[in-house]
Amino acid sequence: MASVFSKIIAGELPGNIVWKDEHCAVISTIEPMRPGHVMVIPIREVDKFNDVEPEVFAHMAKVSQVIASAQERAFGVPRAVAAILGFEVPHTHIHVIPAESEEAAYVQNAQQAPAEEIAQAMDKLREALSSMGYADKIPGRAN
């Protein structure tokens, strides 16, 4: 059975997709640690990150770096942090979190957020990505 992430990527479930290419997608989490918290997910469903094809994982890492730079712009934070957790959904994902401090990435900070707040944060992130020249990776946006 397809994971919830696969269903969001396929458009079968609603979700805030801020990046999509042939190898991965970036979506918001409904329980962000901080506003702008997203997950970089391979298109092909793979449970454990160490089973992801090395080329795809390398691409996910590059996309994570782009997302981190966009988060710094969009949310005015000094850096973004990344973490691979992955027990909650059996589909590899890299969390990328805008951060003012190390505490920003503490799992206990994750809280259900109102859909409107998530949507506003994702719009800010999309704008930053677009201004960085990545509009072609944002679903529904043209160059």
Automatic annotation (TrEMBL):
Coiled coil segments of this chain: none
Gene Ontology biological process: nucleotide metabolic process
Species annotation: Trueperella bialowiezensis
UniProt xrefs under Pfam families: HIT
MF terms in GO: catalytic activity
Xref: InterPro entries: Histidine_triad_HIT (IPR001310), HIT-like (IPR011146), HIT-like_sf (IPR036265)
Taxonomic classification: Bacteria, Bacillati, Actinomycetota, Actinomycetes, Actinomycetales
Motif (Histidine triad motif): 91-95
Protein name: HIT-like protein HI_0961
PANTHER family: ADENOSINE 5'-MONOPHOSPHORAMIDASE HNT1, HIT FAMILY PROTEIN 1
Top-level taxonomic group: Bacteria
Stored Gene3D superfamilies: HIT-like
Catalytic residues, chain numbering: 93 (tele-amp-histidine intermediate)
Residue span(s) of domain HIT: 4-106
